Amino acid sequence: MERTPYDSHKLEPLSPSEGLEMFLSEKCDDLAQSTLQSYRRRINHFIRYCETRDIDNLNNLTGRDLYRFRVFRRDEGDLAKPSLKSQLTAVRSFIKFAERIDACPEDLHRDVVLPSMNPGEDVRDNIIAVEEAQQIIDYLDKFHYASYRHALFATAWETHLRTGTLHSLDVSDLLVEEQALRIEHRPDTGTRLKNGRRANRVIAISSDLVSILTDHIEHERPSIEDKYGRKPLFASQQGRMSKSNLRQTCYAVTRPCFYTDECPAGRDLDDCQATKYEYATSCPDSESLHAVRRGGITYRLSEDVPMEVVSDRGNVSRRVLEEHYDARDEMTRMAQRRKHLNLD
User: Which segments constitute the Core-binding (CB) domain (predicted)?
Assistant: First the structure.
């Protein structure tokens, strides 16, 4: 997609550091303090880069500057791809905000190219960042409210349940008054949990998720039972949604072209096969349900939710949680330890 000419006279001077404060100020009513701090840490790398390159006015920022920053962070930051992607996603959001307040040329955020996982790379290293997850939820809230994909993604992100657990949920497992979901191993009627009856539990959910699921059940969910006479929460006209359908739906809604109408890899959307639902897995930037689970767990830990609480909620041992799910970088961990030790 060609960028349309932009009248540079409409731009108003703004330093990168001032822009960051305005960006965070706009978000302060909607995000937790720890999430704002996470944004600040990620974008500060870009602010410091601008200072070293004498970029003191966002009006003058170019696609080449953004390319050089990406290469600099990749080569000098010693970052794993998920961490680099998370940082660049935050910078992309910042640049998009700067465009809106006439501080950057229009559509400049498209030049922040996010890294993609190569074929064969371990998908367990993938993680969806809180910024991406929130963008997807905001889009679904606005354009696909209470739909199957909205209900599924919102549940997966907030609860960080395994695919098999999401598949096992029934309508009756939504406890509206208690604002909770009941998780139960039911092997005799077609659904098993990974850890068997030890995985049985009740988890608290937000009032927002209760509303989404209630509206989904009342207005969007097919009135259907499975072959055991159960009413699956995630259903099709044929019965309980298959696990493969749950996975495919997650890949579909996490494609950037779905919720931003843009491609960070620079593909032509008219020619890209991955824009079709059935080929969503071929999008290099789509994410699995496991990546959503891992991202949700990391977000909770970054919010200072105790390890034991996250462990119990996700039905995963502390050792496995630390080894395979916790993707916080060392600076984030250090900042959280500092806070607990009152060293500020």
Answer: 14-99
